[in-house]
Structures
1.
Amino acid sequence: MTEIPRPKTQQAAKGTQAGDRNSKFIEIKNFSFFYGAAQAIHDVTMDMPERNVTAFIGPSGCGKSTLLRNLNRMNDLIDGVRHEGDIIVNGHSIYDPLVEVISLRKRIGMVFQKSNPFPKSIYENVVYSLRVAGQNSRPVLDETVERSLRSAALWDEVKDRLHESALGLSGGQMQRLCIARAIANRPEILLMDEPCSALDPIATMKIEQLILSLKSEFTIVIVTHNMQQATRCSDLTAFFYLGKLIEFDRTEKIFTNPSQKQTEEYITGRFG
Amino acid sequence: MREQKTNRLHDFVRTKGEVYVWLASMGLVIGLTMIVFLLGLILWEGVKSFWPEPVAVFELRQDAGGAMQQIAGQITKEQEKAGQATAAENAALEYQIRTANRDTYGSSYRYLDSSQIASVTYPSGLVEVERMEFGNAVGFPESVVFGKSGRTVASGSEEFAGALAKAVQDAATRRAQIEKIEKKEIGSINAEMTSLRNRERSLKSKDEKTAEEEKEIAGKVGSLQGEFEKLATRARELRGEQKNDVLVLRLASGETRTIATGDIVGYFYPNDLGFFGKLGLFFHRLVLFLIENPREANTEGGIYPAIFGTVVMTLLMSVAVMPFGIVAAIYLREYAKQGFMVRCVRIAVNNLAGVPSIVFGVFGLGFFVYLAGGTLDQLFFSETLPTPTFGTGGVLWAALTLALMTVPVVIVATEESLAAVPRGVREGSLACGASKWQTIQRVVLPAAAPGILTGLILAMARGAGEVAPLMLVGVVKLAPSLPLDGDFPFAHLERKFMHLGFHIFDLGFQSPDAEAAKPMVFATTLLLILLVVFLNLFAIIIRERLRKKYATGAF
Ligand SMILES: Nc1ncnc2c1ncn2[C@@H]1O[C@H](COP(=O)(O)OP(=O)(O)OP(=O)(O)O)[C@@H](O)[C@H]1O
Ligand SMILES: [Mg+2]
């Protein structure tokens, strides 16, 4: 098994200058993706730098989720899918036959479009990724639960009912629980598919703050339909349309001075 | 005005569908009525058989009968006499009377014409005696005679009640002693003897029999035989004593009969009982029914071994069917490549659920009993051959046969509840770095557990009520011992067992006095239903707890 090299986290912790960052942490090269005969992604090429927030925007059905789900090979599970091109994380192809999908996924956390808590207690939900990795030491788990729930802005609401079923939470709380679960084992990359679509403005703000604070540690890719959100918390923005990458640039540039007409139409709302 | 109009319009629209709602609810009502009626009938008949009825004494018209002028009994049925149903003679009724005293009259029942009966009275002092043999006796007590002292206590005297109670109590104590000696003590000697004999035989077959060993075994056998003789003599003595004291009874028809107290199980005065007396007796009988062994070809006494056998068999079946069905369903749903083959397997499994149960019985006999059991005997119990140990019907083979029969139910239910676990939850688990098996084990199975338990409940309900296949693989009319007891190794899975369903069949169709067994049939049926309900309730409670734990309402 080849391990994809881990980034130098020591540096990552203190490094704030752009110079430290690997500007090609995630490389997507001529990537196309097919659900059976239907092509959902058309020849996308883009590089996402380390410890940055990249936002995917675009109209519904344009393939944002599909691309995102390919970054941790979640789409492998669907029957009859096929891809072309390659995705390279930190210098190693994730499609390399020697890469173990499970260890890949351990290092890439994911928050889904629909919240999906497990039928377990809140506590067990958060520590799930640690448990499946064989970590059962109580102090470590306790510490993780508190840290993750605090990061996900949920700690105060659930600290007294950690051992109750997670399915008794409200929709927004469930989504924040899923975020806590995704960051519990400190992945290097965090994939978020519309994490705030079920949240109220206050929780949304908290999540955005969370994203900004996590940026120093994680590389984050976020799908959003909320333009303000993209401007508020992302460094880079990619605009997709009909499975194609139309424009990919710094967020300020995309939202103030887009080079493509379609992008401008979309962000100004003049666009289906 | 306008409002009224819209209202009417609204009503009209609503009425359109109402007819179908009525139709649907009518179907439900019919179904419910049938179920309530069925349960009600069984409950009524079952409970009635424990309720003490008063005993009537009928005085017969002189011209109708021969010598007998009076007869006592309980009216069990009342019907119009066949062939005479003209309007004028509507009084021609026929009564079925449970006269008891089968040893005297030749039958427990008798039919009387209403025209034969001169008068009906319910005299006090009449006693009904439950006996070990020949069913109940009914009559007027005359006296108690103590054989040893020769003392006679007449029924008129004040001491009579106490004397009778004491005599019956003594007899009951002795009976318990006899049972202890014969069942427990002699039983354990027999078991030791058998094991010695088997050792001897295996030594002989291996040609290693040395003189010392032979002597040792012979010595042990000798001492055991001595003990056996002692116990047997003691039991014989006690049995003799059982006949010493007698109760003298005068039947309503005039004969005098004596009943040894050793034969008396219990007695009561049916016409002198108040409501609470009857109630007490009712519960007393109910409890005896639940905890006693059957007597007299199962038509009397209790059904404890059958309850025990049913529970043990059903639990064994559940234990066998659960892992088997769940693992099969997990493979089918989660691992197998969904295609033509899997579809074929699924269809085959579903059809298996429709195969007549007797077919499974035949399969169980051929496969489990003859093949598996025969092989086991050959390998591990060769000393006792040709007497089979596992090579004959037993509770283990019966449980496995029923497990096989009910496994499709569990597979189908498990597959369905696995399919109902949302895809998002699985993906969430995989995204956390869990392997497929970890995902199934930690997320999918807990979420599917309530549905799986529903399948188990259905399987248990079907398994507990099945009779036909059991008759081939181990159920018996009367089992000498229970499948679980205090003798090492405690669980005797090779033993034959009794089963409530078979007990009902046996009582209703195989007993010499079908009419007398009828109350028992209903009581046993009631118990079978209750047992199935209780087993299901147990599973339902577990399921509800699981559901509450995971708080999912989706199943
Ligand atoms: N499992 C699937 N099987 C077949 N086609 C799929 C599947 N999932 C998505 N698609 C198709 O792929 C295309 C892209 O879907 P995707 O979910 O990536 O869109 P999206 O950009 O995330 O949209 P939204 O903003 O509504 O979430 C759509 O046309 C969709 O119908
Ligand atoms: Mg999407």
Note: The first helix of chain B runs from residue 2 to 48.
2.
Amino acid sequence: MIEVSEIRKTFGSVKAVDGINFHVKKGEIYGLLGPNGAGKTTTISMISGLLKPDSGSITVAGIDIGGKSGQIRKRLGVIPQEIALYDELSGRENLHFWGSLYGLSGKKLREAADRMLELVNLTERANDNVRDYSGGMKRRVNLCAGLIHDPDLILLDEPTLGIDPQARASILKIIRDEATSGKTVIYTTHYLEEAENLCDRIAIIDRGTIHAEGTLRELTELAGEEDVVTLTGNFKSGVTKEILSGLRIDHLEDGMVRFYVSERETIGMVLNKFFNSGVSIENVSIKEPSLESVFLRITGYELRD
Amino acid sequence: MKNPIAIFLMMLVPLIMTLLVGLVFGGQSEQKLPVIKVLFVDNDGGIISGFLKNGMQQDTLAKMIDLKIVDADAGKKLMEDGKASALIEIPENFSRDFFDRKPVEIRLVKNPSETFLPVIVEEMVKTMVVLLDRAAFVFAGPLDMARVLFDSGRWPTGDEIKKILEDSKNGITLAGGYFSGSLITFKTETVSDPTDGKRDVEFNIFAFVIPGSMIFGLLFISEITLRDLVRERGAGTLQRILVAPLRGVHVVTGKVMVTFCITAVTCIIILVISAIGFGVNIGRPLPLIVHFIGVILMCTGLMSFFYGFINSERTADAVMSVVIIIMALFGGSLIPFEQLNDTLQAIGRFSPVYWAGDGFKQIFLMNAGLADIAMHLVIVYSIAVATLLPGGILLEKKLGRGD
Ligand SMILES: Nc1ncnc2c1ncn2[C@@H]1O[C@H](COP(=O)(O)OP(=O)(O)O)[C@@H](O)[C@H]1O
Ligand SMILES: [Mg+2]
């Protein structure tokens, strides 16, 4: 359905997107997981045609979006990261306006808007100005505005940013349902759980490139069988290095160390060694292979909300 | 549009501004009017020419008129150099002929490069001529007395004046029915521009003030309407519009067209109010419409062009008002152009506002035809074309679209 190859975009000296490749099949939810500044929005903007890639190509349903993009735009639903609605209009008026841009009109438009409002439980507040909505309500209308014309390909850029768990669950369910009914979805997020729970395939994106890609299982297998252990205490890095010799250390500083173990017994041994050298350990955390540990291994840091 | 009330209020702003400026200038304070440079050639040197001369230097008029007494040659030279708005020439033996009730003629020479100031002088001299003329009948008896005094070459004594005044009471009754027929004729000409003398439009202070402030207002209206583009860009709604199946060109043309329409409607409202509310003669329809369209295109074009360089509402706030105010200041919107000094006027001729405003003034005050404002039209339409096209292209580029 969508084929992205070697796209690049530079802003001044910032390589926002530095050679990204992926493809998404029909009915699939493809996740772009990465921290702020990774290049997710830039990638989405290039697919939606808002930005022109410096190089590389993007095709949707076999049609290059660089050329005649009119017929593709009709089939495209874009939900921007920033809420893009008219504050001074009501939720319903907003949907009418955005729907009309896609050629909907009359009864068809009104029905589509009502259906969307029903879907996100906003029928009762539909005639209030968006200005008076809560963050979660605005997010829901923002979503509806991108879906009202029933697009085949849905681009969502962090659609759940900063909202309460209920509204988030409702949005995720809608996206799930869209995919089930055959829509193709590209979903960017910096929330690990969202990527884990929602996406069929996940790409880990950082500093403008995709570092790993696959289903949740494939990715966790990448992390191998190793657990990630993080210790904090009153130890010095020199001592620690000795104690941990032979183990793969991911991060080391005075008072904090993170390393990989393939067997649980190793952890006990390590703690014993620390104990014997008079070090007190304050905290031990063990992470089983998960998307989080994959992310950690690939990017070298933890992804926090 | 999204918010009709806001747009309506926006359109009221220049209107109110126009009215305020009009009231300030048109109210009691004549001293706000430009000072008019008038040359006075007195070939007569008699009582009547003295009366005219003094009349024009008396209190209220003195504030408006900078009267310079010159001889005929100097006057001619100054007029040809365009150093004054008008020249009044009193013929030889004017006073004597007047007392003899022979037909006399006052010559008024107008400066063709100026439009209204000479008209003001013309109106004034006309009024004085009418007064004199009537006086010639009313004071028929006493005038004879005055002539005696005049011939004797001395100023009248108190008693003689008293006598004249007493006689004049009879004179008024006597001359009651004589108000028609004129002894003093009045001849207007224009320096080296014979086509200009025939126009005869009543001078209206609003017609003088409204064009400048109207252009000022129209520029602001265009600016505010186009500002939506950067505002929507900041709000993200523009990007959302751009991912819809519309071409960037359509978005830009749409916005520019809306700007054109709103500016045009504002202009029409101002024109209607000027005509109905302030009795401004809005001139002949053809030149008015042609100039009107040019001016609206120009305002829309200028603002589109400027917005082609502006990325955020912040920049717009900082830059646009300043740009508009400078153009308006030199173009004569804030201070009547005629009142600017030579240097400022020279600069002002580079301001689009001057050509737009002055075009309307010519139409309102001089009943100008297309040919009379040909220069204005060429400039206004040239600016419109030169800014609309690049402005549109810049705006479209700015939308950051690849196609
Ligand atoms: N219009 C722009 N001008 C300059 N730099 C930009 C622009 N858009 C994005 N960037 C930079 O490109 C990088 C990627 O940004 P973005 O795609 O928004 O990341 P994400 O959406 O993953 O947070 C960041 O370093 C950001 O500062
Ligand atoms: Mg982003």
Note: Chain A has eleven helices and 14 strands.
3.
Amino acid sequence: MNCSKLQQCRKIVIFFLQFIKNNNKFAHDLKKTISSFYSRMNTITKNIFKLALVAGIIFFAASLISKSVDIHQLKVDGYSAETIEKPLFGTDEIVYEAPKEVAANDAVATRVKWSLLLFVIILIMVIANAFDISALTAKLTGKQAINSNNVNKWIMLIFLVVGLSATAWEYAVHGKHALLGNASSEHGAIYDSMFNITLILTTIVFVITQILLFYFSFRYAKKDGQKALYYAHNNRLEVFWTIIPAIVLTLLVLRGHQTWRSIVYADVDGTKSTNIEIFAFQFGWNARYAGDDGILGVADYKFISGKNKLGLAYEPEVDSLVVELKAAILSDQQALDNLPKTLESLKADWQAAKDMQDQEAMSSIKKEIEEINCGDRKDDLNASIKRKTKQLERIASIKKDPAVYATYFTKAEEDDIVTQELHLVKNKLVTFKFRSRDIIHSAWLPHFRAQMNVVPGMPTRFTFMPTKTTKEAKAENGPDFEYYLYCNKICGTSHYNMKMKVVIESQEEVDAWLKTQQPAFKPMPAVIAVPAVYLKDSATMTKDSSKNITKKKLALR
Amino acid sequence: MSTETLTATHTHQDEHAHHEHHEPSFIRKYVFSTDHKMISKQFLITGIIMGCLGMLMSLLFRIQLAWPDESFGFLESLLGKWAKGGKIDPNYYMALVTIHGTIMVFYVLTAGLSGTFSNLLIPLQVGARDMASPFMNMLSYWFFFASSVVLLSSFAVETGPASSGWTVYPPLSALQKAMPGSGLGTTLWLVAIILFIVSALLGGINYIVTVLNMRTKGMSMNRLPLTIWAFLLTACLGLLSFPVLLGAGLFLIFDRSFGTSFYLSDIYLNGIGAMTNSGGSPIMYQHLFWFLGHPEVYIILLPALGITSEVIATNARKPIFGYSAMVISLLSIAVLSFIVWGHHMFITGMNPFLGTVFMYVTLIIAVPSAVKTFNYLATLWKGNIRFTPAMMFAIGLVSFFISGGLTGIYLGNAALDVQLHDSYFVVAHFHLVMGSAAIFGMFSGIYHWFPKMFGRMMNNTLGSIHFWLTFASAYMVFFPMHFMGLAGVPRRYYQFSLIPEFGIWMNVNIFITVSAFLGGAAQLLFLYNFFRSIFKGKPATQNPWESNTLEWSAPIKHLHGNWPGDIPAVYRGPHEYSRPDRDLDYFPQHEVGNGEPVHYEAPAETQKTYASDNKDSATKVFFSSFAHLFLLKKA
Ligand code: HEM
Ligand SMILES: [Cu+2]
Ligand SMILES: [Cu+2]
């Protein structure tokens, strides 16, 4: 510590000493208030209060310490802390190779952050007390230290200036990301101009009215001897400021109407655009292209099976689904009949687990026993049978009536191509036909100003024309840029991670890409690579079904 | 501070003279009270507690949004299995967001706000001894209380509370297996909401009847304080729209538990298979929900606007500018609010023509809102403003109403909504115009009527600090969210670090969270001030704000029946502040005048001398205010 700093410290200490000396009345009041506060609380509440305070501090300290210990232990165990810890202001990707100091710094930074928060809270409590006491002092001494009305009036003005500057800063710094740059679609350009008009108008109104509000507050703050103007109404003025907003809003809404039309009526009769089906499920997207025949085959949720994820009306698959369903009903039935036996064996298992002191197994078995005892298992199995029977009935009724049969099984689905990425052609009108398997999702393509809900049981669609290829966008935004389609309607646990990559290319590129994708049910050439979709799907399938099998085993025992 | 049944005074009270009086038991007085003042306090305290919980939830999930990849030991100790490893579980995150929204919208800003101030002010300001049906009023509170308990109890459920958003859209909320929160948690949510609706209806009917039938002598409709107009219209909105939510909720319960298909069709659920439901429409739920949902935002906002109207008039010492325009705009907002619900559904796939219609009516509703804003500004103009905390919160409300209202012009535009729907822009919009504005109205009301409720004053300095911290932090939290939304950040996302595009917002998210904590800390000031002042505040004077309205004529010490002796009659409107023909700058409604006119219309000549700029025309007055501003002309 150098000399000048020491001197400063001395000055501060002397200042405080003098302050206390000069204000021993203040100190006295402080003591008096605090002691009266305490004396009012009976011993029990006092102790609870103290305990809570101490517990809070200990709890807080413990959480900080435990965190640092965590890191320490991880290092000892031979894991590197870096795989867990991430940079403070988390960037886009997990950084596996961060230098060791970063992790340590992070831990420190976290602690600093939390201490800061605690500090702010305590500070505010202290301020609260101080002001309370100063008010008390003011009352006791009969003096009003400051004219709070004047202070507040000036803060009004300061707030206005700071607020407007901050707004300007936001417009400049964050505003440049607004709408993610220029639109990448045809209607997007119209959209952007509508947006800009609204932005300019509202910003003007925002600035003027906020200025008036705070300026009036400042200008007409209470003064001694000033009397407000008795001015209760002025019809002309009121008509004036009813009509002006009405006119402005009318202009906006007319323009909005135009923009809306350009978005929703891009292809009313569906003749100008290519159809692509966008299929949503918990939690992912598929796109379905029509294939060589240019027609999207019929699909129905009733036909969905492990191998036919989109439920296309492909007869062989539907038939095997029927077989599967019948088998499943049988096994459900068997499980139902075997419930008493299952219960017995579960009880035996439980005893065995108890002998082996296997707590985990005990609790899971107990849960199952409870499920059976309270009838949940029975209800589930019955419901499952009912569901599947109904599904079979419905499938049968489709197949029975030749007219209905013909509308479903058109063979148009055989060459449909199901993909996990969406590739679109630049400058070509495309219509998305949305279908949801389970929950309402929403397909949002922010770069294209396109969004539409995906509703189970209700087909929706959206037509637009992409105008900027991914390559062009990358040139503008950097090599890491990608277009995405996000889910934008809360749909469950992994809603936040439900997106599909979108690629805009030339016609040739899209065609070439489609060639690499496997048609859904085209009679297969001798050797084929299994498309990624099904690889992944069958993987999850086997996982699911293996779970089911163990369940069934349990049930059948 | 307490509701004192007449002990010394009751002999003077003619109405009660006939029957026996005795001190009611503790339970009748503090718990199952039928006195509107006590019920109002019950609503307020419950609302404050719920508000604290709602705020704590928002702080918890803000931690997740700011530091999505870090873990915090204390979260695990606090939330147990829902924050394994110190990181909030995605399902629990959604549950927190859902319950936060539900609590804030229904429990704090509907029951907490209307329940408190309608109950306190309607009888006192219209001059009635109590509500039309005190018993129903008591039931209203206890249904609300039961509803709060049921809602909060869902945190004790193994699968967690409802987590499909405060709108609980089916099928997510209808399929018990769609996510953990859609199990028992959603059932409890629905039960809670049904109890809540019962409470709102019991309260609403009471408010309407009391205002229409129990006004004191001379209290014609055009002498009602704007608070009462707002409460009346709010109650009408609630009465007409809550039953629709009740229906929607019952259908949802049927779909969930009894196998009906109101909202369900063509569903294949993971792990279950094809469901049998067919023929229902999930969109129908949205229509029903938003038929309540949109009026609901005005149920939240109108009382706040009513409160600020009175607070601004009182503290600017001016008549509210354009009383009839204020009433007409309240009325037209109330009526229009019933036909704009579709603006929440522009992109659900409804007929584009319908979208057009909803866009037109939505932008029409902006006109009365604009009128209100300008009238507030004109009320401040040439006032003599006292910055009580209540006044500052009222000014804050106007500021939020402007900021949030303007973004409504984007969202009401069907075309623009295509991009903005369900983005953070929406979160910013509704938090400003509905959340912050209404909360500020509530704070304004609390600071203003605290002396009436508890017979003591709150500390003004603390109140000012509370205001400035809250005001700044609210803007710091919600203003940047506009820009996130515009840059394509969706709402209701648990974690943004999985999507590289959102990386640029990490710092902003941290800033928002830290600001939210600042705002949260500021509320500690309020709590301290509030609860301390109940017991130790400076004793209130009869009419601490020198206000005109009737409630300040009632004794400081609460009486059952409000006024000893006759209810005062009313001789003029509520806003006769700073009349040039009087020395005092206020003129209480119940004060018998000396033949003064009811409304003072300054003769043209004198008006000129008062308004030096108001030489000839109204437009000039308007523009002269700009002149002050930009040319710094001396007023
Ligand atoms: C303490 C200050 C508050 C903070 C920091 C805060 C923050 C948030 C955040 C970050 C969300 C999640 C947005 C999303 O992902 O969709 C949210 C949701 C919400 N908040 Fe707040 N909020 C606060 C106060 C309020 C108030 C006063 C209201 C009253 C209207 C409110 C009503 C809502 C609603 C209705 C939702 C939507 C819930 C849903 O998506 O289902 N919040 N809040
Ligand atoms: Cu989703
Ligand atoms: Cu609305």
Note: Chain B touches chain A through 164 residues (CB under 8 Å).
